[in-house]
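Render this sequence as a predicted structure.
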Amino acid sequence: MKLLKKKNSKSMRKTSKITLFTSLLLLSASAISQVPDEIPDTQIEPPQTELEADRGIVKDSTTNFKKLKLDGIAAVVGDYVILESDIEKTLIDLKSQGAMSEDITRCGLLGKLMEDRLYAHQAVQDSLLVSDDEVSMTTERQIQSFVAQMGSMEKLLKFYKKESEASLREDINKINKLRMLSEKMQNSIVSEIEITPEEVRQFFNKIPEDQRPVFGAEMEISQIIKQPKATEAEKQKVIDKLNAIKADVEDNDAKFSVKAILYSQDPGSKSKGGFYSITKDTGFDKTFKDVAFSLQEGEVSDPFETMFGYHLIYIEKIRGQELDLRHILITPEISQESLDAAKSELDSIRKHIIEGKFTFADAARNFSDEKETKFDGGLLRNPIDYGSRFELTNMDPALYNQVRNLKDDEISYPILEQDPRGGGPKYKLLQVTNRYNEHVADFAKDYTRIQELALREKQFNAIKKWMAEHIDDTYISVNDSNKGCEFENNWVKE
């Protein structure tokens, strides 16, 4: 969540460094969306780079050899070479993604590229390798996503100025290999770092009282959901429709992807012809995954039901533990009678809560149809950190509009809402159960957030210590033209 600062201080500068560290960890992932033309392989010995070439040789009495600089080595970290062109291309990529030019310096970017190479170099030394299958699966997902965004592979190749899909795939593989090695090394450094309550207390107490962070206004929200049920006739209508699609695909060679575009009600995949690439760890409905992993390549499932509606799955490709599939979701229509019944039930529940017959939390546990929240008394979880608090400035606009006029412990009237995940309409009651005004950090009230800051600082210090030690132990060379940079780390060894 967003932190506001009261004044500049040494302690809060540390917090800024923590935030910077987190941003830098994400930088390499964001750079993937723009693919450079030339990326040196990062898990093999890099080739020697040709710095100069003889050009323009003309056999006459006045023209002699002319030397033209093609590219230069900006730095070398262990087995990895960083070219001047790597810096320029990354700068262009970041700016094309909307990064503010004043926030990015050439020296700062070179330092970040060197950090990534040091992580990757040490990962190889420590045998923290990534398999070709891992890299290929990641690349395949990205290419599928890129094609969906661009509209076709031809447009994608044109955008990245590549002559072939193989060339594009090779470049993205190289980028992913470096990124995954770097992430593996970083994770291994911080994975076992924990923070004790005493360390949290010491972290908080060393911040002067007049320089402690200010947290924005927050609230805790609970809800009770009633999901109207479709009639058996409507369910059968959907099943019959999906069976007809299955028969058309199997008997008439109809394209499943076309059927998905025409009939699927899944907003996450409809435009992509129903395409998903999943593993058993993908956060999908368990029934959906069980059916998907029971099918063979080229097989179409029978219609089956989840909380979102009825599905068909077609397995396009099996790659080890990963499936490329296409999927059609159709939700049975909900009658107005069912909608009215759900609304009436919530009206009754609201009345009983106000009369004191039971609490909102008890009503949620007993009557709510939403499994994710009912057993927690209807308490909503913030998707950012899975905590119970929502900062007003970062809330989903739709949710904010639903609760902004509610007083503490007031219960909303039933609200009709369409499921953004593709399920049917539902009614809900909302209640603001706690409200926290903008306030200076309080150790007791804000312990979880202070604990997170303390842990980040400890991780940041561990990374800095690791970096300093391995810079000393690793061969590093910085081009003379870059030695004047003011790096965060001691890349230019004395």
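Summary. Confidence is low (pLDDT under 50) at residues 1-70. The longest strand covers residues 309-319.
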